[in-house]
Amino acid sequence: MHSESPGIRNPAPDASSTAQAMDAEEHRRFMRRRLERIGKWCLPLAVLVFTVWFWDRLVVVNEIPHYILPGPSLVWETLAADFWLLLEALKVTLQITLLALAVAVIGGVGLAVLFTQSRLFEMSLFPYAVVLQVTPIISIAPLIFIYVDNKIVGLLICAWIVAFFPILSNTTLGLNSTDHNLRDLFRIYGASRWQRLKHLQIPTALPYFLGGLRIAGGLALIGAVVAEYVAGTGGIGSGLAFTILEAGYRLQIPRMFAALLLIAATGVLIFVSLSLFSHLLLRKWHESALKKE
Q1: Among the four residues 52, 111, 188, 228, which has the most C-beta atoms within 10 Å?
Q2: DSSP-assigned letter for residue 178
Q3: What is the spatial distance between Cα 228 and Cα 216, in angstroms, rounded to a whole number?
Q4: Cα–Cα distance between 278 and 101 in angstroms, integer?
Q5: What's the Rg (C-alpha) of the chain?
Q6: CA distances from 56 to 49, 80, 220 (A)
Q7: Residues 281, 210: contact at Cβ < 8 Å?
């Protein structure tokens, strides 16, 4: 008989030590997720606080006049003092933005569906949509206000031009991204074009469309502001961009900053609202919105 040496023999793994190691790893993952959730809100807030503090110190230490660079406290006071005036201007800008976004959704989705149903239409019209997108709106807006008598309609057209293409492009991509095997399956079972569109292509295209919608929301606001600026140079306008232009002529720099702050806050609100809308539509079934365990 051969006797086994105790030094050569490998002991069986201890179940309790393995469980402790797994618990430690799980705890580290939990803490990492918790820190990420906290940092998601605290880090941007910390950057904002530091930026405002640095801005205030820059103005105070260098004694910069308010007509060159107002301090954050003066901008806040101006925002409070002129709130109702700025709110009326914001209503005009927001109205144009939302109307342009709605028209862009209707036109972009409708044209994307038409493109997927007819290759001939896509080859004929899609290049002109690209041309419309890459042409700077600042160069088109003066011509629009020459040929369109109604100021609101002119502003709406300008904002729509900017917001239209992301929805058209993303929705077209989504409708064309359906699985070929599923397409063949629908064809084998004799599904009509409408059935394929409703039950296969639209669910596939929904995440693409919502991504384009988030982009288009911000672009619609940009288009509305640019259009208002062009209209304001011609002596017509009542939105936030016209308020900024008028304040610049009168050297009311704090009011310019207050109006700019409202525009930035509006853009953030639009993006957050559309992101929440997208999450609510996708959270139960799409991979991008599902909670990771």
Answers
A1: 228
A2: S
A3: 18
A4: 15
A5: 28
A6: 11, 18, 32
A7: yes
- Give one word for 3, left, alpha or beta, with left for phi > 0 and alpha for psi -120 to 50: beta
Please report the DSSP string for 136-153 in residue order. Answer: -HHHHHHHHHHH---HHH
Nearest to 282 by CA among 221, 216, 213: 213
The residue among 148, 128, 120 whose CA lies nearest residue 231 is 148
Burial class of residue 23, CB neighbours in 10 A (0-12, 13-18, 19+): exposed
Of 55, 170, 157, which is closest to residue 116 (Cα–Cα)? 170
Distances from the Cα of 75 to the Cαs of 38, 44, 55, 79, in angstroms? 30, 21, 12, 6
Quick one: 35 and 170 in the same domain? no
Tell whether 30 and 147 lie within a shared domain.
no
pTM (2 d.p.): 0.82
Domain total for the chain? Answer: 2
When pLDDT is cut at 50, 70 and 90, the band that residue 212 belongs to is: very high
Tokens read off for 248: 């610049």
pLDDT at 1 over 50: no
- Chain centroid to Cα 5, Å, comes to 69
Within a 10 A sphere around the Cβ of 225, how many other Cβ atoms? 25
Domain CATH for 121: 1.10.3720.10
Query: In this predicted model, what pLDDT tens digit does every residue of 130-189 receive, in sequence order?
Result: 888 888 888 888 888 888 888 888 889 999 999 999 999 999 999 988 888 888 888 888
Q: Comparing 260 with 284, which gets the higher pLDDT?
A: 260
Three-point CA angle 200, 204, 210, nearest 5°: 140
In a domain, 21, yes or no: yes
Same domain, 30 and 152: no
- Domain extent, residue 55, equals 14-63
Instruction: Please give the average per-residue pLDDT across 63-68, as a whole number.
Output: 88
Do 200 and 182 meet the contact criterion of CB atoms below 8 Å apart? Answer: yes
| Residue 67 dihedral angles phi and psi, to the nearest 5° | -80, -5
